[in-house]
Design a protein that fits this description.
Number of helices: 17
Protein name: DUF4037 domain-containing protein
Radius of gyration: 23 Å
Helix content: 40-55%
Distance between the termini: 54 Å
Oligomer: single chain
Number of strands: 9
Shape: elongated
Largest sheet: 5 strands, mixed
Order of helices and strands: HEEHEEEEHHHEHHHHHHHEEHHHHH
Organism: Paradevosia shaoguanensis
């Protein structure tokens, strides 16, 4: 059984009925989100040694949290079964400890946690409400954290409060999205010719490393064009394989990674770039452009006209604040360091100086 279904049944069969008696009339939301391979449906037998099990987070108002949270967590110790559908209900070899803090309460004895929605947003994204998000703040949010909040499943939602927050965070606003696409083309622009240049001077390892970096950039562009948040590294390839674009891109990417000669790598990558550009044009994303594959100026390296792609994508941006930004990128496009992407308190300090409107050099 997948973890989402296990937790859904844990709520429906155990937690929900118990709450109706332990706190009659309590308005709450219940969900499985925040962390875990099961949020994306990628959990398997090995996942069961890593916080996997019957677990449910319930979300209540701040007032109700103060009134009920600690009591409910304590009283559920006596009500929770030792096992549920063959799985221990207590914390079994889970590296993430149960939540505890000013707006979170949990116990090692069972998988029920009580949170406030405000506290969850603060810990996950560094915001207290979705209403405070500006375009610049959107650019400072980690996609893997946005995915962990909007994936998973909701089992109960009085007033649709949790549902509304997840809907508001379901994907980037259009102008932010266009900016990220333009910046992704810029990433490709910076290194696409280096596959050939490194190979030309006999640096085959360097050429292969650059190829792999560009394959990753193509994959991230695919997530952008499909309007999907990209998962973190462990499930990046698995998530990519589920995208509609993967079917047409994967042969080119596999050819690039397996090629023994730099010209073949460059040509395979260029075919992938062309696939992306044609998809963007077909969807009418940004302004009009004509994707062109050819040599890099006078050098024999196969590339795509990324400058035109960047300019055309930026032409579709309406928000003057976003339009004035240098084509550097969002949080995920300037770093892949896990200690940064998993630390919301760092994001504003890191991104603010990078997103200062300025003329590009």
């Amino acid at each position: 059984m997948q973890g989402i279904e296990l937790s859904r049944r844990f709520h429906d069969d155990v937690v929900g009925p118990w709450l109706s008696q332990a706190a009659p009339g309590l308005r709450y939301s219940a969900a499985l989100l925040a962390y875990g391979s099961e949020l994306l449906g990628f959990d398997d037998e090995l996942s069961r040694d890593h916080n996997w099990g019957p677990r449910v987070r319930i979300y209540v108002s701040r007032k109700d949290f103060g009134t009920h949270a600690r009591r409910l967590v304590e009283e559920f110790k006596a009500a929770a079964p030792a096992q549920f559908l063959g799985e221990p209900a207590g914390w079994r070899n889970r590296p993430h400890p149960p939540a505890n803090g000013a707006e979170a309460a949990g116990s090692y004895d069972h998988g029920l946690e009580v949170h406030t929605l405000e506290g969850q947003l603060e810990s996950a994204l560094g915001i207290s409400s979705v209403g405070e998000l500006t375009p610049l703040k959107w650019l400072g949010l980690a996609e893997q954290r946005l995915l962990s909040f909007t994936a998973g499943a909701v089992f109960h939602d009085d007033g649709n409060r949790l549902g509304k927050a997840r809907e508001a965070l379901a994907y980037f606003p259009d102008d932010v999205w266009l900016f990220k696409i333009a910046c992704q083309w810029r990433r490709i622009a910076e290194e696409q010719a280096f596959v050939g240049r490194a190979g030309q001077v006999g640096d085959d390892i360097g050429s292969r490393v650059i190829t792999a970096r560009l394959v990753r950039d193509v994959m991230r562009m695919s997530f952008l064009l499909e309007r999907r948040y990209a998962p973190y590294a462990k499930w990046f390839g698995s998530g990519f394989a589920q995208l509609p674009l993967a079917a047409s891109l994967s042969p080119h990417l596999e050819a690039a990674l397996s090629a023994s000669e730099w010209k073949e790598r460059g040509e395979a990558l260029a075919a992938a770039y062309l696939t992306l550009a044609r998809r963007q044009a077909a969807d009418g994303i940004g302004g009009k452009f004509e994707p062109v594959i050819g040599p890099y100026f006078e050098r024999p390296f196969t590339t795509i006209n990324t400058d035109d792609l960047v300019a055309a994508t930026r032409a579709g941006i309406a928000d003057p604040t976003i339009k004035a930004l240098p084509t550097i990128g969002s949080l995920d496009q300037v770093t892949d360091l896990t200690p940064v992407l998993e630390a919301p308190h760092i994001w504003p300090r890191m991104m603010a100086p990078l997103l200062e409107p300025a003329k590009e050099h």
